């Protein structure tokens, strides 16, 4: 009997490790998605701040990239069990996300609308880009304030 239990326990080890790996992969993918958004946002913010010269074509490309990313269905990136409480030190996603999906979706739609507006004006001129960036930044902040752990 002991031998059977030991064999069963050893056989279950890869399954437990596999479940943990899936959650790690989900968090990594979620962070990667937001890193892609952040990289494009960084390009645009740099132009608005004058850290790099405004280039309408580059601004338009970054805004186009962001718009394409908003079309990606990110629902699977919010697997239950992948919050900052479940995986301390690996993610800043607060557990509140999974208890307030309606609020998260509302803020997500505000972000999409802001990115759509940004995409329409990014290549026009620096002033229009600045207005668009302000709107997108506000939508990011709204979600971060409510659903992201402070560092």
UniProtKB/TrEMBL annotation:
SUPFAM superfamilies: Cytochromes. GO terms for biological process: electron transport chain. Heme c binds at residues 140, 143-144. GO terms for cellular component: periplasmic space. Binds 1 heme group per subunit. Residues 1-19 form the signal peptide. This is Cytochrome c, class II.
């Amino acid at each position: 009997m002991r031998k059977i239990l030991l064999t069963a326990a050893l056989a279950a080890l890869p399954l437990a490790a596999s479940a943990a790996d899936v959650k790690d992969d989900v968090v990594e993918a979620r962070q990667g998605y937001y890193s892609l958004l952040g990289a494009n946002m960084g390009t645009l913010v740099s132009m608005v701040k004058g850290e790099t010269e405004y280039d309408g074509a580059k601004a338009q490309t970054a805004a186009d990239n962001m718009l394409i990313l908003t079309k990606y269905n990110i629902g699977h990136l919010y697997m239950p069990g992948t919050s900052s409480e479940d995986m301390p030190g690996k993610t800043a996603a607060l557990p509140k996300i999974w208890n307030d999906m309606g609020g998260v979706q509302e803020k997500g739609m505000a972000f999409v609308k802001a990115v759509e507006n940004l995409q329409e004006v990014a290549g026009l001129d620096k002033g229009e880009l600045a207005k668009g960036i302000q709107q997108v930044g506000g939508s990011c902040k709204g979600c971060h304030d409510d659903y992201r752990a402070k560092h």
